[in-house]
Design brief:
alpha+beta, globular, 135 residues
């Protein structure tokens, strides 16, 4: 029985699932939104919000050591220092004014995939979507 087990296994073994979630999170930050199945979007959403929370704290803290430590924690997900710096310095700056620790993403259900009728959703960062709507 799977009582109190929160993680969705997505029919993958652990290392495959971790790699999938890291790749999806990277794509969300690169493009601002991705189209994927609803199950994958719901699985990657907490990871994206954790990364953004750490990036915001790294961006706003005055303690240099704490900022470096948070950047290293973020770098564990991407393994790319340039991309980590982009997330902290550019993307997180947009969310600094929000007084939240979550709510940076939204999932919009689009419909069903043609081949296997899997439910498809749009996972997007909230602020980037709002800026596009204003333009």
């Amino acid at each position: 029985m799977r009582h109190r087990v929160k993680i969705n296994k997505l029919s993958r073994y652990a290392s495959h699932r971790k790699a999938l979630l890291k790749n999806l999170a990277r794509e969300v930050f690169e493009h601002g939104s991705i189209i994927t199945t609803t199950a994958k979007a719901k699985a990657v959403r907490p990871l994206v919000e954790k990364i953004l929370t750490k990036a915001i704290e790294a961006n706003t803290t005055d303690n240099k050591d704490r900022s470096v430590a948070l950047r290293r924690q973020i770098n564990r997900y991407f393994n790319d220092k340039r991309f980590t710096n982009k997330v902290v310095d550019e993307i997180a700056k947009v969310y600094v004014e929000r007084n939240r620790t979550s709510g940076y993403t939204r999932i919009l259900k689009i419909g069903f995939r043609r081949g296997d009728a899997a439910e498809i959703s749009l996972l997007q960062l909230v602020e980037t979507a709002e800026k596009k709507e204003e333009k």
